[in-house]
Every structure is written in structure tokens, then in C-alpha cells.
Amino acid sequence: MIPPVPAAERKGHLDWLRGVGVLVMIQGHVIDSWTRAADRDGAAYHWITFVGGAGGAPVFLFLAGVALVLAASSRIRRGLSEPAAAARALARGWQIFGLAFLFRLQSWAISGGPPRALLKVDILNVMGLSMVVAALLWRAGRGNRSRALLFAAATVVVAMLTPVVRASGLVGVLPDPIEWYLRPAGSATTFTLLPWSGFLLAGCAVGVWLDGLTIARERRGHTVLAGAGAALIAGGYAASLLPPLYAQTSFWTSSPTFFFIRLGILLALVAVAHAWNRLDDGRRMREFGRSSLFVYWIHVEIVYGVLSTGLHRRLPLESAYLAFVLFSLFLYGVVKVKQRVYDRSPAPTLVRTPLST
After folding, report:
1. What DSSP designation does 11 have?
2. Which of 28, 112, 116, 230 has its CA 20 to 30 A from that of 145?
3. Torsion angle, CA of 35/181/355/200, rounded to 10 degrees?
4. Could you read off the pLDDT of 97-108 as tens digits, one per residue?
5. How far apart are the first and last CA of the chain?
6. Is 357 among the domain residues?
């Protein structure tokens, strides 16, 4: 396993923000899986599931990009060459991609399903391949400026190509397992490379920016991020009021305007996390954030799998939300136990590796 960024070099507010993303993810999954049909038409249910779907995944992908760049830069400062640092980042991307299939195999072995479910495209598939692309772009750059430009350009390309690729007849001639990575295909896809990889690539650009900040400039640098985020939100909203550029697009799924609005929110959230952590250390939320892969790995099967069959679509919304709170406390307790076990063992383990480092 490739080790995460050493604790002394980690930016704690990013762990805190990842921890918030963990809670948003758990909330979305629990409410989606356990709420009864009679409560699924209400505004509260739709807002909760919208925040869970539109908020959690972008946070994880975005912070995965930030962490990839910070980890590579940290390794260079510790004496590793740029090619070697890029190779480590590339290996980590392939590792996450491989874990995606291991996760599917686990789910299939526990809860069953058709064999094609093993090829379902979920967030780890997209994250792994996006990290591979990001590592190659990082290696192609020469210094922070060129890398930031490469990542920013790649982000724009991904966002603008999403409606084109989804409407293209050429994608339809590809084998199904490859097509699933490019556009939605019912239950075979939860995420696709376009536009979701764009959040990770944008995170890489922000990682370059954060890596270049001195301690004295951190506050000002995060203020710049907040301003850039506000500009993206305003620009995306204004663009959504104009006639569409594409014949076939949906604002809530494939639209570049919605992508850039969400990206603006992410930039603003980084600044908010930095400001919040100046007032409060957020230790518990940081612990959640540092164990995000572990939490993801165990909670999905519990929430959607055979272990909770009796709760599936059975609870009133209020009860489902109470279940989310209690389940989150349980998972935090499991994280604490896991950390104690790790601290007593000199060997690195899978559960130690955060989702986005």
C-alpha cells in the first residue's frame, strides 16, 4: 500500500471537509435505502437525497485530486524524484481502480446478484481511472504553473465534452462495460468518467495552488479560493439562463453549467473549512475524514445489503433520519476501534488508507 501523506504534512481542514463529506454520504445512503415509499414524495426526502447525491461524491473526488498533488509534492520535498513521485501517484490510481472490483466482488459474494454486477461502474472505478489520468498530467507538467494550467484545461474539457459524449452514437458501438464508463446505463452505472472525473482534475489544480502557499499566505490564499468559487457559482447560474449550447443536455446531470456551479461550491467549502478549523480543531470530523475509505467500504453493504434487509424502505423519514444519526455514531466508534488496532500494529493495512490519499 502507498502510505498517505504524513500527519505533520496533512492539511487538517481538508481532512475535516472530507469528514463532512462522509456524513453527507452516509445520510444520503441511509435515507435512500431505509425510507418508506409513502415519504419519498415529500420535499424533505428530495432535498436530503439531492444533497447526498450532489454533495458527497464531488467532495470525495475533488479532495482526492487535492491529496494526489499534495502527496506528490511532499514526496519530492523528502528527496524523491519527479518521475518516481509520479509513478507512486500512478500506482495509487491503479490500486484504487483495483479496489473498486474487490468491493464489487465483496458485495456480490455477500448479497448476491447477476455476475454483470461485478462490472458496475461506481465511484471507486471513476476515482481510480481519474487518478491515473491526473498522475500522467502531473508528470507532463513542468512546475506548478504548467501543472495548474494542465489540470484546469482538462477540467474544462471534461465538463464541455460531457453532453457531446452522452449524445454520441459512436459510444454505442463500444462494448457495454466500456460504454458504462462514458455515459449512464441504468443499474450498470452509478457514476461515469464524464463529468465526474472533472471534479478530481479540478481538485488537482487546487492542490497545486495550496501547495504553493506559505503559512503566511494561507489565509489570503483561501480567500482567493472563496472568491473564485463565488465567481464560478454566479457565472454558472448566469450561463444556465442563456440558450443552451447543446441539442441534448440535462441541467441536473450533464450540463457544464451545473458542473461549474458545484465546482464553485467546492472551492468555497475549502475556504469555509479553513476558516472553521481556525476556530475549532474538529478532531472527530478529521478522524472520520482520515478513515473515509474504511467507512465507505463497510457502510454501503450494511445499508444496502442483506444485513439490513428488514429496514429497506420500511422506516418513516423521521425514523430513517434518527437511524442515520445512530448509525453514524456507531461507525465513528468502529473507526476509533480500527485506529487503536492499527496503532498497535507496525504493518500498514487497508483500513488505514483514506479514500482520497
Report:
1. -
2. 230
3. -110
4. 999 999 999 999
5. 11
6. no
Q: How far is CA 142 from CA 26, 226, 350, in A?
A: 39, 27, 33
Grid cell in block for residue 261: 456551479
* Cβ pair 267, 224 in contact under 8 A: no
* pLDDT at position 351 over 70: no
Amino acid at 238: A
CB neighbours of residue 174 within 10 Å: 13
Give the number of C-alpha atoms closer than 13 A to the C-alpha of residue 96, restricted to the C-beta side: 29
CA–CA distance, 185 with 177 (Å, rounded to integer): 10
**pLDDT digits over 39-89, tens only?**
999 999 998 888 877 778 999 999 999 999 999 999 999 999 999 999 999
- The model's pTM: 0.92
Burial class (CB in 10 A: 0-12, 13-18, 19+), 276: middle
Q: How many domains does the chain have?
A: 1
The whole-angstrom separation of Cα 130 and Cα 245 is 26
CA distances from 136 to 83, 86, 89, 133, 236 (A): 10, 7, 9, 5, 29
In a domain, 206, yes or no: yes
pLDDT digits (tens, 9 = 90+) for 108-135: 999 888 999 999 999 999 999 999 999 9
CA dihedral 302, 305, 311, 317 (to 10 degrees): 70
Distance CA 83, CA 101 (A): 28
Mean pLDDT, range 259-267, rounded to an integer: 97
What's the distance, CA 160 to chain centroid?
A: 20
What digits encode the pLDDT tens for the residues 143-158? 999 999 999 999 999 9
- With CA atoms as reference, report the closest residue to 273 among 325, 222, 326: 222
Residue 142: Cβ within 10 Å count: 10
Give domain status of residue 116, yes or no.
yes
Cell numbers of 39, please?
415519504
Q: Is the peptide bond before 195 cis (omega within 30 degrees of 0)?
A: yes
Residue 2 falls within a domain, yes or no?
no
